[in-house]
Write a structure and sequence with these properties.
4-stranded antiparallel sheet, alpha+beta, OB fold (Dihydrolipoamide Acetyltransferase, E2P), single chain, disordered N terminus
Length: 385
C-alpha cells in the first residue's frame, strides 16, 4: 500500500498568519474604510465529495530480481576432462552435454560387469537344472534330504549371484554415464571452474547454471501494510478483485516490464529488526530481459477498497491537532478535521470526517479563515458529478 510519505502534502499552510495580518490591518487607525460585503468575499475553487465507491488498491515496493535456481555442476567420477561442449554465458537446456570425462576405464568396467553377469546367468541355469532333477528324485524317495538341501542351496546362491552381477553392471553403467557431464537444469552457464585436460575427482566443481525463466522478484512490505491488508480483507474494508494470487508488475528504470506476474509467497512472520514481511512474486522471463541481482519496483494489484471517499491532496492541511480541510457550509468556511489512510494518485483516502456532497476548498488558503464568506468560482470535478 502506498504510504503517505509523498502524499502528505506537507502543507503546513499557515493560513492563520493571514488571519492575523488581516486583523492587524483592520485594527490600525490608518486602515481604509471597510469594503462592502460583496468585495469581502474570497473567491475559491472547490471539490465536491462524491458518493463512496470501490477503488482499486495499488501497492508499490522496491524489489530485487533473483533466480529461481542456481546449481553447481560437479564431476561425479574421476578422470581427465577431454572436451567442453558449451560456451560460458550461453543458455543450455536440461540434459545438454557440458563436458566429457575420459570414459575408457569406465567402459572397461561395464564390459567386465556384463561378462560377470553372463557367467552368473550360466551358473544359475545349471543350478536350476540340478535342482529340478534332484527335487524329482527326492519326491520319488530316490535321494537323500541332505542332497536335496545342498542342491536347493546351490540354486538359491546362483540366483543371488545373478542379482549381484546385475547390480555391479548397473553401477558400472552409471559411472560410465557420469563421464558425460550434462546440465541438470535449463539456464545460463557461468564461468568454467575447470579446464579441459585437468584431472577431476568426484565432487570437483565444473560450472554453475542459473535458471532465469521463470524468475523471482523478492521484496519486503512494511508490517503496517501487511497487517492492514490482512485485517482489511477480513473485516470487509478491502476485497480481492479476483480469486487466486494477486497480480504483480515490474518497473525498471521507469519502464514497465512487458510480462505480468503474480505473488506466490507472503511470509507469516514479521522481521523484528526491520518491521517488514518478506514476499515474492514470479514472472516469466523467456527473453531473459530480467537479470538476477537487478533492482526494480514491484506493483501489486488486485485489491479493492470498499466504499471509498477521496479528497484531493492539495485540499488537505495540517495543524497541531492533525489533518484538516476547509469546507463551504451555507456560503461560509468551516474547518473539518479528517482522518486519512493511504494515497491514490493525487488523492487521499478519507476514513473519517467527510461525506458525499461536502464541498471542500482547494485553493486560496492564505486568504480565508473560519466563518468567512466565500464565493465559489469553480467545482474542479464538476464533470465527474
Amino acid at each position: 500500500m502506498s504510504r503517505l510519505k509523498n502524499g502528505l502534502v506537507a502543507v503546513l499552510i499557515v493560513s492563520f498568519a493571514g488571519f492575523l495580518l488581516v486583523s492587524l490591518f483592520e485594527s490600525n487607525g490608518n486602515a481604509k474604510p471597510k469594503q462592502s460585503m460583496q468585495n469581502r468575499y474570497v473567491h475559491v475553487d472547490v471539490y465536491k465529495v462524491a458518493k463512496p465507491a470501490d477503488m482499486p488498491v495499488e501497492l508499490k515496493y522496491p524489489t530485487r530480481i533473483k533466480s529461481m535456481q542456481n546449481v553447481k555442476i560437479v564431476a561425479r567420477v574421476s578422470g581427465t576432462l577431454l572436451k567442453k561442449y558449451y560456451t560460458e554465458g550461453q543458455f543450455v537446456n536440461k540434459g545438454d552435454l557440458l563436458y566429457m570425462i575420459e570414459p575408457d576405464t569406465y567402459k572397461a568396467q561395464v564390459d567386465a560387469a556384463k561378462a560377470q553377469l553372463q557367467s552368473a546367468i550360466a551358473a544359475l541355469n545349471k543350478a536350476e537344472r540340478d535342482w529340478k532333477r534332484v527335487k524329482a528324485l527326492y519326491e520319488a524317495n530316490a535321494t537323500s534330504k541332505q542332497t536335496r538341501d545342498a542342491t536347493l542351496s546351490a540354486y538359491e546362491i546362483a540366483k543371488a549371484n545373478v542379482e549381484r552381477a546385475k547390480a555391479n553392471l548397473e553401477t558400472a553403467q552409471i559411472n560410465l554415464n557420469y563421464t558425460k557431464v550434462k546440465a541438470t537444469i535449463s539456464g545460463i552457464t557461468g564461468l568454467k571452474a575447470a579446464d579441459v585436460g585437468s584431472f577431476v575427482t568426484n565432487g570437483t566443481p565444473l560450472v554453475a547454471i542459473t535458471k532465469v525463466n521463470p524468475i523471482y522478484a523478492e521484496f519486503s512490505m512494511p508490517d503496517i501494510d501487511a497487517m492492514r491488508e490482512k485485517y482489511n480483507i477480513k473485516n470487509g474494508k478491502w476485497t480481492k478483485a479476483t480469486e487466486g494470487e494477486l497480480k504483480a508488475y515490474l518497473e525498471i528504470n521507469g519502464k514497465r516490464y512487458n510480462k505480468e506476474g503474480f505473488v506466490n509467497f507472503i511470509d507469516t512472520n514479521i522481521d523484528p529488526q526491520t518491521s517488514t514481511v518478506k514476499a515474492r512474486a514470479v514472472f516469466n522471463n523467456p527473453d531473459r530481459l530480467l537479470m538476477p541481482g537487478e533492482f526494480a519496483r514491484i506493483i501489486i494489484k488486485g485489491l479493492i477498497r470498499k466504499n471509498t471517499i477521496l479528497v484531493p491532496q492539495k485540499a488537505v492541511l495540517q495543524n497541531p491537532l492533525g489533518m484538516i480541510v476547509f469546507v463551504v457550509n451555507r456560503g461560509r468556511t468551516e474547518i473539518r478535521p479528517i482522518k486519512i489512510s493511504e494515497t491514490s494518485g493525487k488523492y487521499f483516502v478519507v476514513e473519517k470526517g467527510l461525506k458525499a456532497g461536502d464541498t471542500v476548498i482547494v485553493n486560496n488558503f492564505f486568504k480565508i479563515k473560519p466563518g468567512m464568506p466565500v464565493k465559489i468560482d469553480k467545482i474542479t470535478n464538476a464533470k465527474e458529478q
